[in-house]
Protein: beta-lactamase
Organism: Allorhizobium taibaishanense
Amino acid sequence: MFGGTALLIAGCLSRALADKTSASKLRELEQKAHGRLGAYVLDPVRGTAFGWRENEHFTHASSFKMSLAAMLLAKADAGQIDLDEILHWTKDDMLPVSPLTKANLDKGLSVRDLGRATLVTSDNTAANVLMRRFGGPSQLTAFWRSIGDTVSRLDRYEPDLNDTPPGTDLDTTTPAAMAATTAAFVHGNVLSAGSRAMLRAWMTDVKTGRDRIRSSFPVDWVSGDKTGTGIGKTKHTYVDLAFGGPAGRGPLIVTAYFEPIRPAKPMDKNAVAVLAAVGHIVAESLSRS
Protein backbone atom coordinates (compact mmCIF):
# COMPACT_ATOMS: atom_id res chain seq x y z
CA MET A 1 0.00 0.00 0.00
CA PHE A 2 2.75 2.43 1.02
CA GLY A 3 4.75 1.65 -2.11
CA GLY A 4 1.75 2.31 -4.33
CA THR A 5 1.02 5.59 -2.56
CA ALA A 6 4.65 6.66 -2.90
CA LEU A 7 4.59 5.93 -6.61
CA LEU A 8 1.36 7.92 -6.97
CA ILE A 9 2.84 10.90 -5.12
CA ALA A 10 6.02 10.69 -7.18
CA GLY A 11 3.97 10.63 -10.37
CA CYS A 12 1.99 13.69 -9.31
CA LEU A 13 5.15 15.59 -8.42
CA SER A 14 6.72 14.63 -11.74
CA ARG A 15 3.71 15.91 -13.66
CA ALA A 16 3.64 19.13 -11.62
CA LEU A 17 7.32 19.76 -12.37
CA ALA A 18 6.76 19.04 -16.07
CA ASP A 19 3.88 21.50 -16.21
CA LYS A 20 5.97 24.13 -14.41
CA THR A 21 8.73 23.61 -16.95
CA SER A 22 6.28 24.01 -19.84
CA ALA A 23 4.88 27.23 -18.34
CA SER A 24 8.42 28.57 -18.05
CA LYS A 25 8.98 27.78 -21.71
CA LEU A 26 5.89 29.83 -22.62
CA ARG A 27 7.33 32.76 -20.64
CA GLU A 28 10.68 32.38 -22.39
CA LEU A 29 8.95 32.24 -25.76
CA GLU A 30 7.20 35.54 -25.05
CA GLN A 31 10.49 37.17 -24.11
CA LYS A 32 12.13 36.06 -27.36
CA ALA A 33 9.11 36.95 -29.49
CA HIS A 34 8.86 40.61 -28.42
CA GLY A 35 5.16 40.83 -27.76
CA ARG A 36 2.43 39.74 -25.36
CA LEU A 37 1.68 36.02 -25.34
CA GLY A 38 -1.23 34.39 -23.58
CA ALA A 39 -1.65 30.61 -23.66
CA TYR A 40 -3.32 27.82 -21.73
CA VAL A 41 -3.12 24.05 -22.10
CA LEU A 42 -5.57 21.57 -20.60
CA ASP A 43 -4.89 17.84 -20.45
CA PRO A 44 -8.16 16.04 -19.63
CA VAL A 45 -6.45 12.66 -19.33
CA ARG A 46 -3.99 13.72 -16.63
CA GLY A 47 -6.27 16.40 -15.20
CA THR A 48 -3.50 18.99 -15.39
CA ALA A 49 -2.99 22.39 -16.97
CA PHE A 50 -0.35 25.04 -17.49
CA GLY A 51 -0.28 28.49 -19.01
CA TRP A 52 1.15 31.96 -19.25
CA ARG A 53 -0.91 35.15 -18.90
CA GLU A 54 -3.88 32.80 -18.98
CA ASN A 55 -6.18 35.19 -17.13
CA GLU A 56 -5.41 38.30 -19.17
CA HIS A 57 -7.85 39.55 -21.80
CA PHE A 58 -7.22 39.17 -25.53
CA THR A 59 -9.31 39.99 -28.60
CA HIS A 60 -11.16 37.01 -30.12
CA ALA A 61 -10.76 38.09 -33.75
CA SER A 62 -12.24 35.30 -35.89
CA SER A 63 -11.72 32.63 -33.24
CA PHE A 64 -15.22 33.42 -31.91
CA LYS A 65 -16.56 31.52 -34.93
CA MET A 66 -15.84 28.19 -33.25
CA SER A 67 -18.24 29.11 -30.46
CA LEU A 68 -20.76 30.48 -32.97
CA ALA A 69 -20.80 27.14 -34.77
CA ALA A 70 -21.11 25.29 -31.47
CA MET A 71 -24.02 27.51 -30.44
CA LEU A 72 -25.88 26.64 -33.64
CA LEU A 73 -25.32 22.92 -33.10
CA ALA A 74 -26.46 23.19 -29.46
CA LYS A 75 -29.62 25.04 -30.49
CA ALA A 76 -30.30 22.38 -33.13
CA ASP A 77 -29.81 19.66 -30.51
CA ALA A 78 -32.42 21.41 -28.37
CA GLY A 79 -34.85 21.65 -31.30
CA GLN A 80 -34.68 25.46 -31.29
CA ILE A 81 -33.38 25.93 -34.83
CA ASP A 82 -33.36 24.05 -38.13
CA LEU A 83 -29.90 23.52 -39.58
CA ASP A 84 -31.49 23.02 -43.01
CA GLU A 85 -33.04 26.50 -43.05
CA ILE A 86 -31.80 28.45 -46.08
CA LEU A 87 -30.51 31.95 -45.36
CA HIS A 88 -29.92 34.72 -47.90
CA TRP A 89 -27.82 37.88 -48.01
CA THR A 90 -27.19 40.71 -50.43
CA LYS A 91 -24.19 42.15 -52.21
CA ASP A 92 -24.14 44.93 -49.62
CA ASP A 93 -23.62 42.34 -46.87
CA MET A 94 -20.45 40.95 -48.43
CA LEU A 95 -17.16 41.31 -46.56
CA PRO A 96 -13.58 40.37 -47.47
CA VAL A 97 -12.56 36.76 -46.76
CA SER A 98 -15.97 35.32 -47.62
CA PRO A 99 -15.29 32.62 -50.21
CA LEU A 100 -18.38 30.46 -49.75
CA THR A 101 -20.93 33.24 -49.34
CA LYS A 102 -19.47 35.02 -52.38
CA ALA A 103 -19.86 31.86 -54.47
CA ASN A 104 -23.47 31.38 -53.31
CA LEU A 105 -24.74 34.96 -53.29
CA ASP A 106 -27.63 34.19 -55.64
CA LYS A 107 -29.00 31.03 -54.05
CA GLY A 108 -28.14 31.27 -50.35
CA LEU A 109 -26.97 28.48 -48.06
CA SER A 110 -28.27 26.36 -45.19
CA VAL A 111 -27.50 27.23 -41.59
CA ARG A 112 -25.39 24.07 -41.45
CA ASP A 113 -23.29 25.06 -44.47
CA LEU A 114 -22.86 28.61 -43.19
CA GLY A 115 -21.78 27.28 -39.80
CA ARG A 116 -19.18 25.05 -41.42
CA ALA A 117 -17.98 27.96 -43.56
CA THR A 118 -17.36 30.12 -40.50
CA LEU A 119 -14.95 27.48 -39.22
CA VAL A 120 -13.31 25.92 -42.26
CA THR A 121 -12.75 29.07 -44.33
CA SER A 122 -13.40 31.71 -41.62
CA ASP A 123 -16.07 33.21 -43.88
CA ASN A 124 -16.81 36.65 -42.43
CA THR A 125 -20.10 37.23 -44.23
CA ALA A 126 -21.36 33.83 -43.07
CA ALA A 127 -20.65 34.77 -39.46
CA ASN A 128 -22.57 38.04 -39.73
CA VAL A 129 -25.50 36.43 -41.53
CA LEU A 130 -25.78 33.78 -38.81
CA MET A 131 -25.50 36.26 -35.96
CA ARG A 132 -28.15 38.54 -37.46
CA ARG A 133 -30.49 35.59 -37.90
CA PHE A 134 -30.01 34.23 -34.38
CA GLY A 135 -29.95 37.24 -32.09
CA GLY A 136 -26.66 39.04 -32.64
CA PRO A 137 -23.43 39.08 -30.62
CA SER A 138 -25.30 39.23 -27.31
CA GLN A 139 -26.77 35.79 -27.97
CA LEU A 140 -23.30 34.30 -28.27
CA THR A 141 -22.35 35.94 -24.98
CA ALA A 142 -25.52 34.47 -23.43
CA PHE A 143 -24.55 31.05 -24.79
CA TRP A 144 -21.14 31.30 -23.15
CA ARG A 145 -22.78 32.20 -19.85
CA SER A 146 -25.15 29.24 -20.14
CA ILE A 147 -22.23 26.80 -20.30
CA GLY A 148 -20.34 28.39 -17.40
CA ASP A 149 -18.03 30.79 -19.25
CA THR A 150 -18.36 34.02 -17.26
CA VAL A 151 -15.52 35.81 -19.05
CA SER A 152 -15.89 35.60 -22.82
CA ARG A 153 -17.99 38.27 -24.51
CA LEU A 154 -18.91 39.36 -28.02
CA ASP A 155 -20.20 42.86 -28.57
CA ARG A 156 -19.94 43.68 -32.28
CA TYR A 157 -20.09 42.19 -35.76
CA GLU A 158 -17.34 41.58 -38.30
CA PRO A 159 -15.11 43.44 -38.99
CA ASP A 160 -15.37 45.83 -36.01
CA LEU A 161 -14.90 43.06 -33.44
CA ASN A 162 -11.27 42.60 -34.52
CA ASP A 163 -10.15 45.82 -32.80
CA THR A 164 -10.79 46.12 -29.06
CA PRO A 165 -10.78 49.83 -28.06
CA PRO A 166 -8.13 50.69 -25.44
CA GLY A 167 -9.45 50.59 -21.90
CA THR A 168 -12.30 48.19 -22.72
CA ASP A 169 -12.87 44.42 -22.78
CA LEU A 170 -15.11 44.51 -25.84
CA ASP A 171 -15.02 41.29 -27.88
CA THR A 172 -12.47 39.57 -25.62
CA THR A 173 -11.81 36.42 -23.65
CA THR A 174 -8.92 34.94 -21.67
CA PRO A 175 -6.83 31.90 -22.64
CA ALA A 176 -8.03 30.00 -19.56
CA ALA A 177 -11.71 30.79 -20.12
CA MET A 178 -11.61 29.84 -23.79
CA ALA A 179 -9.67 26.66 -23.08
CA ALA A 180 -12.42 25.56 -20.67
CA THR A 181 -15.06 26.48 -23.25
CA THR A 182 -13.26 24.62 -26.03
CA ALA A 183 -12.94 21.58 -23.75
CA ALA A 184 -16.68 21.75 -23.09
CA PHE A 185 -17.32 21.52 -26.83
CA VAL A 186 -14.71 18.86 -27.62
CA HIS A 187 -15.01 16.69 -24.49
CA GLY A 188 -18.10 17.76 -22.57
CA ASN A 189 -21.85 17.34 -22.86
CA VAL A 190 -22.69 20.80 -24.20
CA LEU A 191 -23.28 19.12 -27.56
CA SER A 192 -24.83 15.78 -28.44
CA ALA A 193 -22.42 13.07 -29.57
CA GLY A 194 -23.33 13.69 -33.20
CA SER A 195 -22.95 17.47 -32.96
CA ARG A 196 -19.69 17.11 -31.05
CA ALA A 197 -18.34 14.87 -33.81
CA MET A 198 -19.50 17.36 -36.44
CA LEU A 199 -17.78 20.30 -34.73
CA ARG A 200 -14.56 18.33 -34.36
CA ALA A 201 -14.72 17.34 -38.02
CA TRP A 202 -15.18 20.97 -39.05
CA MET A 203 -12.23 22.01 -36.88
CA THR A 204 -10.13 19.25 -38.41
CA ASP A 205 -10.94 20.61 -41.88
CA VAL A 206 -9.92 24.19 -41.00
CA LYS A 207 -7.66 25.60 -43.73
CA THR A 208 -6.36 28.70 -41.94
CA GLY A 209 -4.45 27.06 -39.08
CA ARG A 210 -2.04 24.73 -40.85
CA ASP A 211 0.91 27.01 -39.99
CA ARG A 212 -0.09 27.72 -36.38
CA ILE A 213 -0.38 25.39 -33.36
CA ARG A 214 -1.18 22.25 -35.34
CA SER A 215 1.90 22.61 -37.53
CA SER A 216 4.07 21.52 -34.58
CA PHE A 217 1.96 18.53 -33.57
CA PRO A 218 3.21 15.05 -34.54
CA VAL A 219 1.80 13.97 -37.91
CA ASP A 220 -0.05 11.02 -36.38
CA TRP A 221 -2.01 13.20 -33.94
CA VAL A 222 -5.73 13.77 -34.41
CA SER A 223 -6.20 17.54 -34.30
CA GLY A 224 -8.33 20.53 -35.22
CA ASP A 225 -8.40 24.25 -34.61
CA LYS A 226 -9.92 27.68 -35.23
CA THR A 227 -7.77 30.69 -35.93
CA GLY A 228 -8.22 34.42 -35.60
CA THR A 229 -6.24 37.37 -36.94
CA GLY A 230 -7.26 40.78 -35.66
CA ILE A 231 -5.68 43.70 -37.51
CA GLY A 232 -6.52 46.70 -35.32
CA LYS A 233 -5.51 50.33 -35.44
CA THR A 234 -2.99 50.07 -32.62
CA LYS A 235 -2.38 46.34 -32.22
CA HIS A 236 -2.61 43.06 -34.09
CA THR A 237 -3.78 39.84 -32.43
CA TYR A 238 -2.96 36.34 -33.70
CA VAL A 239 -5.09 33.54 -32.23
CA ASP A 240 -5.40 29.80 -32.42
CA LEU A 241 -7.74 27.48 -30.50
CA ALA A 242 -6.77 23.85 -30.98
CA PHE A 243 -7.27 20.30 -29.83
CA GLY A 244 -4.83 17.50 -30.51
CA GLY A 245 -3.40 14.22 -29.33
CA PRO A 246 -2.60 10.65 -30.33
CA ALA A 247 -5.47 8.57 -31.68
CA GLY A 248 -7.34 6.86 -28.85
CA ARG A 249 -6.28 9.43 -26.26
CA GLY A 250 -8.40 12.36 -25.13
CA PRO A 251 -6.91 15.36 -26.95
CA LEU A 252 -5.17 18.25 -25.27
CA ILE A 253 -6.88 21.64 -25.47
CA VAL A 254 -4.65 24.58 -26.41
CA THR A 255 -5.51 28.26 -26.66
CA ALA A 256 -2.90 30.83 -27.71
CA TYR A 257 -3.01 34.59 -28.33
CA PHE A 258 -0.09 36.75 -29.43
CA GLU A 259 0.20 40.52 -29.89
CA PRO A 260 3.52 41.56 -31.49
CA ILE A 261 5.05 44.81 -30.25
CA ARG A 262 5.65 45.94 -33.83
CA PRO A 263 2.64 44.95 -35.99
CA ALA A 264 3.32 44.01 -39.60
CA LYS A 265 0.91 43.79 -42.53
CA PRO A 266 -0.73 41.95 -44.14
CA MET A 267 0.30 38.89 -42.11
CA ASP A 268 3.19 38.76 -39.64
CA LYS A 269 4.97 35.47 -40.29
CA ASN A 270 6.96 35.85 -37.07
CA ALA A 271 3.74 36.21 -35.06
CA VAL A 272 2.31 33.11 -36.71
CA ALA A 273 5.55 31.28 -35.88
CA VAL A 274 5.05 32.11 -32.19
CA LEU A 275 1.77 30.17 -32.23
CA ALA A 276 3.53 27.27 -33.94
CA ALA A 277 6.15 27.38 -31.19
CA VAL A 278 3.36 27.06 -28.60
CA GLY A 279 2.32 23.88 -30.39
CA HIS A 280 5.87 22.56 -30.10
CA ILE A 281 5.92 23.22 -26.35
CA VAL A 282 2.60 21.40 -26.01
CA ALA A 283 3.74 18.35 -27.97
CA GLU A 284 6.94 18.25 -25.96
CA SER A 285 4.99 18.42 -22.69
CA LEU A 286 3.01 15.31 -23.63
CA SER A 287 6.14 13.40 -24.64
CA ARG A 288 7.52 13.97 -21.13
CA SER A 289 4.40 12.67 -19.38
